[in-house]
Amino acid sequence: MIFLLGTGLIFLFCYFFFIRADFHINIEKQEKGFIFIIKADLYFFPAHRLLQYQFEAPDFQLLSTFEKMQENSRRLKERSKSNSFKAYLIRLGLRDYKQIAKAVLHFTTVENVYWKTIIGLQDAMQTGIGTGSIWAIKGIIISFISINSKMERLHLKVDPDYNKQIFSSTLNCIIRIRIVHIIFIAVYLIYLIVRGYINEYRSGKAARSSHRRTYENSYAEY
What we know:
It is built from 5 helices and 7 strands. By secondary structure, it is of the alpha/beta class.
């Protein structure tokens, strides 16, 4: 009886209390390159701040960052070919990342999104193409989030500047998730890991058994 009462109180605590995260991302082009700033504040129900994080890169090279991301992706794919448990986790992330993202977004409430971008390329046609491309990128990202989560407020803006070369993008995002849903997500991830590991073990065992039977049959023909 005491155990059930304690479990019920813990469940109620996890259900009514939640975690709120406030993200601020800013990218701005200057003469020497891009400035990249990330600020994140983590709150508990909702005024008590648990964590504050800030990252600044005053000389952020966009092209080299994409090249590093491609190189890291190639290394992860190479490391995922081994039979270790870490390699399996890499394979799980590469294979089921959309399913994991959808599971996280399903329990997440996006309270507010403010995303403003200013772009100018000193050429009217290029500025127009760049403006349309940014609208398309924002539409893809926001549509994926809004389909898989609950979004309360949204403000998107893209301002073209035909007089000078400029690029600046500011994103403010506030999300909220209940503690009980964090527990559900953790249990779901453990389920995916265990299920996938068992399936890979069974498929590998079946493949070895099939190979052994083929070898025995071919040997019997001589």
